[in-house]
Amino acid sequence: MAKTKKYSFLDKLILPVAVVVAIFLLLGTLAGSMDPRKHAIIAFFGLAYPFVLVINIIFIAWWLISKKWIFALVTIVVIAIGFKTLKATFAIGGDEGGAEKPENSVRMMTYNVHNFKLYGGDNDEQVKEKMLQVVKDQNPDVVCFQEFYTRYKGNFDTIDSLKALLNAKYYYFVPTNKNDYEAIGLAIFSRYPIKDKGEIHFNEGYPGNMCIYADLNVKGKALRIYNVHFQSISFEKQDYEYLDKVKKMDTELQPSKRILRMLKSAFLKRSSQVDMMKKEMASCKLPYLIAGDFNDTPASYVVTQITDSLNNSFIKKGSGFGKTYNGKFPNFQIDYIATSKDIEVLNYKITEARLSDHFPVRSDIKLKP
Prior knowledge:
By secondary structure, the protein is α+β, with helices and mostly antiparallel strands. The chain has ten helices and 13 strands.
């Protein structure tokens, strides 16, 4: 009787690919602890981590179907080695909360509203109203806005609109770009009194990327809110057009190099910005929360360094991959809410409102006694 072959031709073809992909996954798990200013290449593996994770899971399924138990086990071990990165990227279960917030909690929300425009188009009154309705429906006590656009009077005076809509008479708006009749910047709206406020300007990066903070009086308890917008990649129209080609497997060398350079530049600038934020947060004597557009993925150096010692609301109460980006670049989780350890995270919700290039994120939190 002929001896049965142990490995099929397809197995032999897949095995080296699976080994390479497993190595890529391990490199991706290192991204959170390795500064891109010293190890720029590792940052790219961190960016690719969600995709590489899915490919590894597909390989596990293949090995199980073909009864190659040892290969399936090794792949599972590789994923388990990066468990910390895994749980920051993908969550099971979770709690979205309800329409009404729990008693004695603060409903927090962060939303990059893309200047209240539809993908860079002209100001659209209808889109703005839909975005404001999304915010109203979530009924937040505190909202952090990035790329917040307002005019000083008229229908596009979004400051007055939000104050009335949310019954939030306290706000702090810092323009990063303005003229005599309109402004763009970061804003915090609150139903609780603002006792102190400030801004943190990053040494590197676009002026629109910065952080503002407000110290709130929440029923006699102090709470600091950091609203941050880290360095974006700053893709232009031609870059998005090329990414569409990539999705169709139609790639060219020069645009690829340009996009890689832009990604690397953003990695490096965000690393410098993280240094400033970590120093600021370490000096804060109050219970605090940081929210905003981090422009990076859960496996990244930026997100890991900022949230590692905090309660990451997605890790605590999220589910799935938690994608918050709604643009043409692959849809990642890049918007976050994280709190100091003396604050309890009660729930976490992403509202898939396809109006801005970001989805709003909401979380109910409770100050511990």
